[in-house]
Amino acid sequence: MGIASVSGLRFSYGDIVALDGIDLEIPSGPVGLVGANGAGKTTFLRLLLGILSPGTGTIEVLGAPVPGGILTVRDRVGYMPEGACLPGDQTAADFVGYAAELAGLPVRAARQRASDVLTLVGLHEERFRPIAGFSTGMLQRAKLAQAIVHDPELVLLDEPTAGLDPEGREEMLELITRLHGFGINALVSSHVLIDIEQTCEWVVMLDGGRVLRSGPLTDLSVAEEASVQVLGDTADFVDGLQRAGGVVSADGDALRVVMEGGDPFDLVRDVAAATGTAIRRLGQRRITLEDVFLEGDDA
Amino acid sequence: MPEGAVFDLGYRPHDGPRLGRRGALAALFRDGLRRVLGLRRRARSKVLPWALLGIALLPALFFTAFGVVLGDLDVSNTIFGHADYFDLTGTVSLIFVALAGSELTVPDRASGTMAIYASRPLTIGDYLAVRAASLGAVVFGFLYLPHVVLHLGRAWTSSRGFGSYVVDEVTVLWETAAASMVFIVAYAPIVFLVGTFSKRTSVAAAAGFGSIVFVSGGAAALVEEGGLDVAGLLAVQFHPGYVKDWIMSADTQHWVPESAGFQPWVSLVVIGVVALLALGAVRARYRNVQ
To answer: Which of A193, B14, B91, B194 could form a disulfide with A151 if both were Cys (CB 3.0 to 4.6 A apart)?
Structure first.
């Protein structure tokens, strides 16, 4: 069973269509939900949680219908909202414990889980401090803690690295990466594509309320293309590649070489030998989510 | 030589019981009580509610101490009876209700915590009902506890003996409980509604208190100075006192609705209608939250 199944989903805020004709099967595991600001990511998460009701279409989360079986769904999920959601006048231990009780854990178990999970996210020392004094990084960790304190089957993370400095971002991404090992599926919403590349195995790309692409990241990560950087003038080298049937395009400082029906690496080797070109770097070109996203936009 | 080992327990799944919606409702109710009383919060959050509770209890404790000194504090020679006690602590009670109502409505919205409730096995109807139940429970305790103290104090100092007094005068416990409920139904829904319009607890409390006092004051002026009797229906501050006197067969003062010529049951109906309208408006305020 996957995380969610969505069919013919359409939702609008008045006249503004936020999601239009979404059909998706989201598998288990760490899944990324990417798109520009306003692409419909948060709306999609709120629909999965039953906070919003779909205009048309059907939604199933963990096999239960939404909104019909919403209490069953909410029993099994956690949610880390993008915005502020923590009361400043409580300590992290009290609030995360309360969040566990709200998910149905008995009081004693909730207190114990809160302590364990706050340690896991790196807030053990700060757990008895009022949340009002927390830094942005600590707030994000506390938000993650409340989302997983009740050991959910699925956690929905909305822009989990928002506002974090580079070090805090890396730590948050590491925590998210570890969730799969805990048996927790994660649906990570982000407009930072590299975050998704780093943490997820499957990606759903939204653009303008529509699904641009949904598939495993492994399909994206490599391509039958060579990326080559050479020393000196490239004119003879490029000319040689093109005469031998290669398709060459500039890719920043590098050249991107594709050969229909042949091996682009052999072609680069042969042309470099023939033209006496010195190669500085040669490797398989990696397609990033950004490439796919931009190609989708162009289309 | 003994050897030690360090185990990294890492993440441990929860294999214990899950209480589901029932557990969530109970947790929300407990949180409501703690929030109003400032428990598990900073010291300054505790000051006002506990000070008000102390003020409300003070007369009961004073009368009890008075009886201990005199040797008898029977119903006949007590300066204030149970019916008068509601009037004595009326303003304090209203302040407490306004504070409690704002504490239960404002912080969850202001701090964005509603998003977390939306990921727990609760509906918005559950949330509002349990918050209202917390408010009712804590206000009932605030209103009723002094009467229990006064009753037991009187029993303790009574010449009839503790047991005999408690049994003979047990009806006052039911009457004061019913009167307390009337005060809750009259005030709590209004402050609950006012609280849904504010993002600051103090502003909501002041607005809740002020709206009841000023509307009622205006209504009293229209009735007594302008002769506009129908305005007596708007004297929301005074309806519960009038009904309380009716329940307790007392006549502690001349209430505004009484001056306007209304019977106590009319006040009771007004209290019920205003409560339903206020709670309906609260539900409408949260209509966008499932």
So the answer is: B14
Residues 6+ apart with CB under 8 A from B247: B175, B178, B179, B182
Sign of the dihedral defined by the CA atoms of residues B76, B82, B86, B92, in that order: positive
Strands A56-61 and A4-13: antiparallel
Would an 8 Å CB–CB cutoff place A79 in contact with chain B? yes
Q: Which residue of A has its CA nearest to B290?
A: A51
Chain A, chain B: beta-carbon pairs less than 8 Å apart = 122
A 257-286 residues with CB below 8 A of B? none
- Beta bridge pairs of residue A13: A16
Q: What is the pLDDT along chain B (290 residues), one digit of tens a residue?
A: 556 665 556 788 888 899 999 999 999 999 999 999 989 888 888 888 999 999 989 988 888 887 777 766 555 555 678 888 888 888 899 999 999 999 999 999 999 999 999 999 999 999 999 999 999 999 999 999 999 998 888 888 888 888 898 898 899 999 999 999 999 999 999 999 999 999 899 999 999 999 999 999 999 999 988 888 999 999 999 999 999 999 998 888 889 999 999 999 999 999 999 999 999 999 998 886 54
Residue A55: what pLDDT?
A: 85
Q: Are A80 and A156 in contact (CB under 8 A)?
A: yes
By three-state DSSP, how is residue B74 classified?
A: coil
Cα–Cα–Cα angle for B117, B123, B127, rounded to 5 degrees: 65
- Closest residue to A79, CB basis, from B28, B119, B121: B119
Contact B113 A75 (CB under 8 A): no
Interface test with A, best of B29, B116, B117, B288 (most A CBs within 10 A): B116
Instruction: Determine the residue of chain A that is closest to B25 in CA distance.
Output: A102
pLDDT in tens, A170-190: 989 999 999 988 899 999 999
Q: What is the pLDDT of residue B32?
A: 95
Percent of chain A with pLDDT over 90: 46
Point out the residue among A74, A91, A116 whose CB comes nearest to the CB of B119. Answer: A74
User: Within an 8 Å CB–CB cutoff, is residue A120 touching chain B?
Assistant: yes
Sign of CA dihedral A195, A74, A54, B289: negative
Amino acid identity at A40: G
Backbone angles phi, psi at A255, to 5 degrees: -110, 140
Of A52, A53, A81, the CB nearest to B115: A81
> What pLDDT is recorded for position A233?
82
Backbone conformation region of residue B66, classed left if phi is above 0, alpha if psi is from -120 to 50, else beta: alpha
Using CA atoms, how far apart are residues B141 and A128, in angstroms rounded to an integer? 30
Order of all β-strands in the sheet with A254-259: A246-251, A254-259, A226-230, A279-284
CA atoms within 13 A on the CB side of B169: 24
Choose among B90, B32, B56: nearest CA to B209. B90
Determine the length of chain B.
290
For the CA atoms of B169, B170, B176, B178, the dihedral, rounded to the nearest 10 degrees, stands at -140
Q: Is A14 on the interface with B (CB under 8 A)?
A: no
